[in-house]
């Protein structure tokens, strides 16, 4: 009897957490649901990739990964602090050139034709729904706190995983952002966190949105979504993004396995002056949803990329490889493929279209 009572209480607690814990997000509005149901990507109650993307992860695979995680991977985190450049808000605002600043992992601050864009803002110390639990950020500081940022014209979200869509960051940012551009279904999270619906634009793949003279295009990625338990998986869309001005073209991959969509995007919107492509947090078991560095360099070629900045590394350990493996392998692949690869420090400004770009091995 006592065991039954304990099971019931545990079930109720889990239910209440999943239903009411704010970081888990919210549900889509009726209007959003109508658009979701009409999406070609939404089939049998879930969003799907363009091509079959099995994610068969057996109980044995889960157990093996848990054991390896507990044992730890040598050099899975930096042994000491690495250099981080401080953000100069005045210089960012006064500099007329198009530029991008990497904040670690997939958080990026861009200025394109004077328009200020913030991509996948995660400023919290942990990439998880619970503070002090889950993947912890390598560094004790960031180039800037949210309060130090200028007014942002648009925040762009690729998908709703915790290392790309962060509750605490959105709550702090929302008063300093003109609008949020997100994939279908993601608005439900933002409205629950206090963002007014009229400031959110939800896009399906190949939809375009004008922002202060720029054109933002939601383009395919090969991934998945979900942050509120098994039932929420696939309820929101995942995207890569194209940013176009009169003079500059930028491609951001979001999270993605390798696939034919890169060539398709390149044919429609390339070539690109700069690409920001996922290059870390891979595993052979996740080959369909995360690229190896060698595949990332090939994806850059497929989209017609010029200068490439490797992202999705340098902040959190989410896989079993060493923390420097992504950038070391990316540099090697770039040399073999004759690709221009920028390796900025976190916080270092990269000028789009410049002939000189950061290339130091700062992680060594």
SSE inventory with pairings:
Layout: H1 2-20, H2 30-38, E1 42-43, E2 46-47, H3 59-71, H4 89-94, E3 99-102, E4 108-112, E5 115-119, E6 152-156, H5 167-173, E7 177-183, H6 187-192, E8 200-203, E9 208-211, E10 214-219, E11 240-244, E12 249-252, H7 261-269, E13 272-278, H8 293-303, E14 305-311, H9 325-337, E15 349-351
Parallel strand pairs: 5-6, 6-7, 7-8, 12-13, 13-14
Antiparallel strand pairs: 1-2, 3-4, 3-15, 4-5, 9-10, 10-11, 11-12
Domain Metallo-beta-lactamase: 117-313
Pfam family, one: Lactamase_B_2
InterPro entries: Metallo-B-lactamas, NAPE-PLD, RibonucZ/Hydroxyglut_hydro
What would your notes on this structure say?
The chain has 364 residues and is an alpha/beta fold. It has a single domain (85-351), classed as Metallo-beta-lactamase, Chain A (4-Layer Sandwich). It is built from 9 helices and 15 strands. The protein has helices spanning 2-20, 30-38, 59-71, 89-94, 167-173, 187-192, 261-269, 293-303, 325-337; strands at 42-43, 46-47, 99-102, 108-112, 115-119, 152-156, 177-183, 200-203, 208-211, 214-219, 240-244, 249-252, 272-278, 305-311, 349-351. A 7-stranded mixed β-sheet has the order 8-7-6-5-4-3-15, with no helix packed on it. The protein has a 6-stranded mixed β-sheet with strand order 9-10-11-12-13-14. It has a two-stranded antiparallel ribbon with strand order 1-2. Helix 5 links the parallel strand 6 (152-156) and strand 7. Helix 8 crosses helix 9 (325-337). The radius of gyration is 20 Å and the shape is globular. Pfam families: Lactamase_B_2. InterPro entries: Metallo-B-lactamas, NAPE-PLD, RibonucZ/Hydroxyglut_hydro. This is L-ascorbate metabolism protein UlaG (Beta-lactamase superfamily). It comes from Cytobacillus purgationiresistens.
